[in-house]
Amino acid sequence: MSRSSKKTNMKSLLTRVILATAIAFAAVISANEANAQSPMSVGSSENVPGIQLKNITPFVGQHVTIFYVLATKPLISVNERQISVSEIRYLMTKPVSSAIVAVPPMKLQIVGFRPGFNYIAVVFHAQPNFVWMNADGGVPADPRGLTPQSASTTATHIMTFSKAQIEAIAARQGKPETITIEL
Prior knowledge:
The protein is of the alpha+beta class. Helix content is 23%, strand content 31%.
């Protein structure tokens, strides 16, 4: 093969590679634009039902913090409700002044393919500020900037619910905007 035919073949190959790359790049851009409308895109959110906690008279005078978190179940645990929190997506603390505490419905941001939450933890505690501490001693970043040195890690009662459990409760209750959880 002559030198000029090798150059021509190389140019032809290079042109095909550039063309294929441009087509692939255009396809990626098109797919990204299409995904901008998908529920998993940046800027989308998911609806979270409100929660009404009932029969909480034993905790009157304390505080309750509701954590909306991304968490996993530990491989080994003596408590089936134990979770290991990797990220706190949202939290709300309220004083317990009666037998009922209500948390309004909300929307939580979906980031990439991570949901707004996959667990809700309801924590009753005596001190006004509570910081989540995992069983292994790890502490996820608190959106309020609190640390175990600046707030309590002692809870009087903890309940955890997976997203599937929350959806099942909502289905049993006729999918209301606010679900009721009784102690």
